[in-house]
Amino acid sequence: MSHPLNTPLGRFGIVTSEDAPDACVASIPVGGMVNPLTNAPTIAPLAMLVDHACGLVNHRRRAAGEWTVSSELSLEADPDAAEIVAGAPDVPVVATARPFGNKTDVALASCELGHRGTVLATATVRSFYIHTPGDLAPFPDGPTGPLPPGTLADRMAVRVAESGGAGQVLLQDEDPVLNNSIGIVHGGVSAMALELVASAALNADRPGQPLRTSSLHVNFLRPFHSGAESRYTGTCLRVGRSTGVGEAQAIGPGGALAIIARLTAYR
């Protein structure tokens, strides 16, 4: 059995308290997390929790010889979510996920995320079922435990790119711990990074009250591998006094576009 810190879930302190065919309950620490591009509090870890909880529900519905691959992740959050978490930063956010609709070649799961009895967000994950020639590593892959030390950027193995390019950029360094069961960067890690760069793009050089994430929609287009060229880029599509829309991309080795996201934020 792997050590907790040597799994994607353990790296971010995710604890699964219920794992049944019709429900998954899991939690993640969010208090004190900051965006490495802005140093502002972030709710990006919610995307990691959603990918795990909803993804696990979809995975438990698979048939023999099937495996799941996330195709879409959507998150609708209270813009006050970061402030609510800051009121009790040591209390983790809890997600309760359930299957939604019928399973075909794809499946949808929905979840509600709460903190001290307050609903922070609702979310969904849609998964494809792919045929596999043999058994893959268990899902989730290994034990979990308390949140390890270090910043969010440290745990994600991302670095702020040097200035000179357009938008906001995080580099995705290689770290085998962050790979999922099929050897690509865990979808929850990528979703977090896309939220970070998109929200940073909307708040670049913004005076006064920042724009806060309210919705995030992620489309997984192809496998995303870490490496010297792998990066997340965020750009601003439109920003006003009280709202903004940003776009983010995960670009892998060779310049291949692997994941895209659209983020909306409000003051």
Mean pLDDT: 91
Shape call: globular
| Spans where pLDDT lies below 50 across 5 or more residues | none
H and E string: HEEHEHEEEHEEHEEEE
Largest sheet: 12 strands, antiparallel
Structural category is alpha+beta
Q: What is the percent of helical residues? A: 10-25%
Percent in strands: 35-45%
How many strands in all?
A: 12
- What is the radius of gyration computed over CA atoms, rounded to a whole number of angstroms? 17 Å
The side-by-side strand order for the widest beta sheet comes to: 1-2-4-5-6-3-9-12-11-10-8-7
How far do the termini sit from each other? Answer: 45 Å
* DSSP helical segment count: 5
Quick structural overview:
The chain has 267 residues and is an alpha+beta fold.
Describe what this molecule looks like in 3D.
The protein is of the alpha+beta class and 267 residues long. The protein has helices at residues 8-11, 45-59, 81-86, 152-156, 187-203, and strands at residues 15-20, 23-28, 66-77, 93-100, 106-115, 118-131, 158-160, 168-172, 212-220, 231-239, 243-251, 257-266. The relative contact order is 0.18.
Show the helix and strand layout:
Blueprint: H1 8-11, E1 15-20, E2 23-28, H2 45-59, E3 66-77, H3 81-86, E4 93-100, E5 106-115, E6 118-131, H4 152-156, E7 158-160, E8 168-172, H5 187-203, E9 212-220, E10 231-239, E11 243-251, E12 257-266
Antiparallel strand pairs: 1-2, 2-4, 3-6, 3-9, 4-5, 5-6, 7-8, 8-10, 9-12, 10-11, 11-12
Descriptive terms for the model:
alpha+beta
